[in-house]
Amino acid sequence: MSWLNGRSFSQGVHVPEFKQATCHLPIRRLPFAPVLIVPLSQHTGAPAVSIVREGQEVVRGEPIAKAGGFVSVPMHAPATGRVERIAPAPTARGDLSTAIYIRPYPGASQEILYGAPQDIERMTPDQIIAAIQETGVVGLGGAAFPTHVKMKLPEGKRVDTVIVNGCECEPYLTTDHRVMVEQPAEVLAGARIAMKAIGAARAIVGVEDNKPDAIEALRKAAASSPNITVASIPTKYPQGAEKILIQVLLGRQVPTGGLPSDVGAAVFNVATLAQIGDLLPRHQGLIERVVTITGPGVAKPGNYLAALGTPLRWALEQAGCEPDVASVILGGPMMGPAVGSLDVPLTKGVTGVLVLTSRELDGRRKIYACIKCAACVEACPMHLNPSRLGMLARKERYEEMETAFHLNDCFECGSCSYVCPANIPLVQYFRLAKQMNRARKSNLAKALQ
Amino acid sequence: MKPVIELRTSPHLHVPRSVQAIMLNVVLALLPICAYSVWLFGLSALVLLITTTAACVATEYFICKISGSESSVGDFSVVITGLLLGLILPPGFPLWMAAVGGFIAVAPGKMLFGGLGFNVFNPALVARAFLQAAFPVAIMGYTPALALRRFAEFIPSSFAMPLIKAPPLAAWIAQTRVDAFTGATPLMLEKFDHVHSAVWPLLIGQRAGSAGETPALLILVCGAYLIFRQMMDWRIPVAMLATAFLASSAFYLSDPSHNPTPWFMLFSGGMMLGAMFMATDPVSSPVTPLGIWIYGALIGLITILIRLKGGLAEGVMYAILLGNAVSPLIDNLTQPRTYGARKKEAAG
Q1: pLDDT at res. B178
Q2: Is A2-24+145-279 in CATH node 3.40.50.11540?
Q3: Which of A39-43, A107-111, A234-238, B178-182 has the lowest average pLDDT?
């Protein structure tokens, strides 16, 4: 199926990759921090509900919180130790959220004793979906949307293709890259489980061509699976966005406001599937993930396997920081938020930690008026008109942005801000506009009650 | 001191190309044209360019000062306006009128709308249109290129004073006249005297005309530099020149004895300068992919229609101003089809 290779999408941007520092470094384990902070809400959806009490001893891998509904997942103890307290903890968004503080026992073997193996071959799709919820796996590519919810198709929808997202188009990040190189069998096992749960006949793994070793490893592992294809696609940002990748690999466009299942596709990140492929047969929970700690401000950049709940400060102490750290970003530089506190824990959705120094920040950039150069219009992968949207946002005409200029199709990839010569914070305007529209609608709904 | 980490919004990477860098590169691309213009027309062209640029910069500086806002001179866009205005006036244009033009370009043409990014029309062309209406005689005062004593003396009209009749140019032209060069531009000769001009002198600019519009090849090269640096939209000149070529071909083929060749149309008048440096002004052109093509094509077509069917010899200026005027409309009518747009929406 070589016709899949070399396909791409129109528009988008070519961003410097900065992946050389870590892309060849094997995944290494980060030591346990003195205290692990496990927030109950580290996924999209309802927060998990704690099932432990302060002072309780927990065993590594044991459930410590149960799912708070269908669109929610349980949490598992990332280390054997004692629940120190259940209290608010800072989050990357800036607000506080309830978390379970666990102090690992320094002398514990930290062996995972919890879990009972299960035979996936004999499970029904619904049983698989329920089991995936029990593992606590969410989208590890950054969205942290519960994976089992994506597998539960709406009534009447059929999915023919599972798309395995190995693009990792964000600069600096190499977690997916290393997972594909080191755990191709787990990735494919996860893909097979997803195909069975969804009832899809085939899977396509999309990998950008700047990762030839990952493509080779996956192709070797998939040699005996005729229904799994590995496609090498030209590197371009934001190819790893769900809707874009569907268009690249299947030539289908998800209708606005719709879901991938509307066009018969389901997209899963490689790290997510690798965890499912690894955890599900053993019936264990998600307790750690690979995080790329990198950037000019890091002394020992690398791909680290970190226990969930590891405080950022501890992780950076292990990797070493340059003295002139100016900004710490969770995720990649295009979409990742900068954090205001180093006491934020690494959670399920954190793909990387990027540390920039004052050299990269380079003072304040002057913001000019839009000169209508159309660079953003050429860059937007959704073919929106960011120039016009930005001008409307300046005038606070948020409603018009949504009704006349498709604001809600924007998935905030940042391509427009990246290319803007006037340094207009377009994406930030759009985030604000969406929030204002949501607030207006909820106020309206309240007023009508 | 406690180390501080900064909070900024994503994306944390940016292309190094700023508005200032773009404008500075346009200025750099205009400088060879200015230098060549000085070589062709001598001292008068030099002082003309200095006068228009100084007038534009000073106007913007003082308006910023009066309005209490930060000076926007540093973004270099006003330098472009000044240079362009100098380049589209006759080389011997009276300097005091040129200074008035500089004021008109920046004060009502740009700052009144809100400065860079908000002007509807290209400021230099606004000034040119004003000057054409206000000083119809002076603006037709073209002189030949490569006059013998062009570095020894000024064109007499340069230092004409307000309210005093300018010295007649005809005598001066007769005195400095080089072989085959007259004071009339090739387009004027074509239109009013039915004299055809050869294309080669047009390419290297050795003809009468506005100070900087004549060297078609040099303008092409300078524009190509900006396109190469991704600081100019290549689609606008391509659309404009291609449409102008096709439209004039149609006229030429229908009546070769009365209509000039398309090559002549392409390389005469302000076609090249307009296509490369005036129509491409991003502020006053559309942003949508389809709109950009329509805009360029529209300007090319109107230019040819004015030249061949209108009362004026040259039509680039009004064609671009007209294009500027309709560019918001073009933008509205050509919004891009978004990813995943539903059928009924796309139709409505």
Answers
A1: 57
A2: yes
A3: B178-182
B92 vs B169: CA distance, rounded Å: 9
Q: Kindly provide the ipTM of the predicted complex, given to two decimals.
A: 0.89
Domains of chain B: 19-334 (1.10.3430)
CA distance B291 to B293: 5
State how far residue A357 is from chain B, nearest Cα, in angstroms: 9
Whats the size of chain A, residue-wise? 449
**For A224-273, what is each residue's pLDDT tens digit?**
999 999 999 999 999 999 999 999 999 999 999 999 999 999 999 999 99
pTM of the model: 0.91
Q: For B336, which of A325, A383, A417 is closest by C-beta distance? A: A383
Q: In chain A, what residues touch B3 (CB-CB under 8 Å)?
A: 323, 325
Radius of gyration of chain B (CA): 21
**In A48-177, where do the E strands start and end?**
49-50, 57-58, 63-66, 75-76, 81-90, 96-104, 161-166
**CA max distance for chain B:** 83
Pairs of CB atoms within 8 A across A/B: 160
Whether residue B22 and residue A15 make contact (CB cut-off 8 A), yes or no, is: no
Work out the angle at residue B120's Cα, subtended by the Cα atoms of residues B114 and B126, and round it to the nearest 5 degrees.
100
B271: Cβ–Cβ under 8 A, 6 or more apart, which residues?
A: B216, B241, B244, B265, B303, B316
Burial class (CB in 10 A: 0-12, 13-18, 19+), A97: middle
Please give, rounded to a whole number of angstroms, the shortest distance from the CA of A165 to a CA of chain B.
Answer: 20
Are A427 and B118 a contacting pair at CB < 8 A? no
Which one has a higher pLDDT value, B323 or B340?
B323
Token output for B183: 């004071």
Q: What is the distance in angstroms between the Cα of B55 and the nearest Cα belonging to chain A?
A: 23
What gap in Å lies between CA B337 and CA A385, rounded to an integer? 10
Q: Which chain A residue's Cα is nearest to B339? A: A382
Nearest-CA distance B278 → chain A (Å):
14
Distance CA A19, CA A23 (A): 6
Say if residues A298 and A357 touch (Cβ distance below 8 Å).
no
Q: Which residues of B touch A335 (CB under 8 A)?
A: 10-11
| A-contacting residues in B 237-296 (Cβ below 8 Å) | 282-289, 292
* Residue range(s) in chain A whose domain bears CATH number 3.40.50.11540: 2-24+145-279
A4 pLDDT higher than 80: no
In the numeric block, the tokens 């997202």 are attached to: A165
Is there a contact between A350 and A289 (Cβ–Cβ < 8 Å)?
Answer: yes
Do B18 and A425 make contact, defined as CB atoms within 8 angstroms? no
Nearest-CA residue of chain A relative to B230?
A375
- Expressed in angstroms, the distance from the first to the final Cα of chain B is 60
Residue B180: pLDDT band by 50, 70, 90 thresholds? Answer: very low
What pLDDT was estimated at residue A115? 76
DSSP notation for A361-427: H-SPPPPPPP----HHHHH-TT---HHHHHHHHHTT-HHHHHHHH-GGG-----HHHHH-TT---HH
Per the listing, tokens 């994406």 go with A427
A98 DSSP 8-state letter: E
Using a CB–CB cutoff of 8 Å, tell me whether A338 touches chain B: yes
The pLDDT assigned to B1 comes to 44
Name chain B contacts of A373, Cβ cutoff 8 Å: 22, 233, 282, 287
